[in-house]
Amino acid sequence: MTDRLVKAGFQAYLVGGCVRDLLLGMSPKDFDVSTNAEPEQIQALFKNCRLIGRRFRLAHIHFGRHIIEVATFRGPHIKHDKNNSHAHKDGRLLRDNVYGTLEEDAWRRDFTVNALYLDAQNKTVLDYVGGINDHQNKILRLMGEPITRYKEDPVRLLRAVRFKAKLNFRFDAKTEAPMNEVAPLLKDIPSARLYDEILKLFLNTKANDIFDMLRHYGLFAVLFSQTEICLNKATSQMPLALIKQAMENTEIRLKNKKHITPYFLLATLLWEPVRRLSEQNRSSFNSDTQAIHAAANEIVAHQVSRIAIPRRITTPMREVWALQPRFHKQIGIRCLRFLEHPRFRAAYDFMLLRAQYGEVDEKIATWWTHIQTLDPTEQKQLTRPNRSKQKRKPRKKSSDQTTVN
Questions:
Q1: pTM of the predicted structure, to 2 decimals
Q2: Residue 380 clears pLDDT 80, i.e. is over it
Q3: Which residues are catalytic?
Q4: Residue 132: which residues within 8 A CB-CB, separation 6 or more?
Q5: Is the pLDDT of residue 400 over 60?
Q6: CA distance linking residue 308 with residue 288, whole number of Å
């Protein structure tokens, strides 16, 4: 791709995470290209190109199921007139984008290690910001004045945590210092964008490290405020341990190339608020299931106002929660029908996780594990009510009873 742009008379370089990962000996997941060709010029060279964006147009070039993002060099904000840079009421800086040179583009990026350009034709790396030195010293450094850069885009806080965990780098002191202070700015990021970022953070082989850092820098409290409150009020380590075990299980599955369902991990993250609220309001409902349904409605409604978790995720989350009381019923036909429920397996795994930390009796977990190993006849026998009746003794004749002939 860069060859075609260069042959057409343009500059073109691989840039960002793909260059960073290649230098670390890692396999990049995505490839981004930066060029001095403008979007319409890029589109003219590639038939499989689609332009996206309003404030700054990007070219997406499709190769089968893969997309390579091509961006025109961006210029510095000094090129803007005063009307193109303004502050949002919450303190975030909103700035439009303008085209620039290669070096100007480098200084517009977030971290120095993400501002390295690979000239694929000459096999050289271009560095205008000291990124190679930081790369070698394993330092994650935000370019420019950190508070200003975080205000421009508070999602950089989440990216900083994710990159630190992924790369096993350490923060530059100036990059780290204001993180707790500016964490509340995440409240004003569009909820749909935050959902995408949450998936990147937690569906990750470093999920536990990321979770710990999010809490340390006050970011988790903004993203999952109800859960953070519950964790701080907890009288034991059980709620925290349950979440961290779920994170560890996610890491293991990802390392083993197994499928991950986001709803299960999110159900774990929000379970403690749901559990506490359902117990608090239990007397107002006829059953545990009704109490959980009501609590789930309230907790999920609050959560999606912050992070736009789609219905295809919240629906199975609710089902997993609502099915938990059914594990306490081990007699009768409904027990057998429960085994056939489409969400049984996820609910069962969730129950096992709870049992691991004492929230569910281990005997219950063992019973449900055992019944799944039986054939249908044995399952029916195991769930049959105990109706053993004593054999009726013959009635004794009373002393005053006479026989009539």
A1: 0.86
A2: yes
A3: 30, 32, 110
A4: 116, 125
A5: no
A6: 27
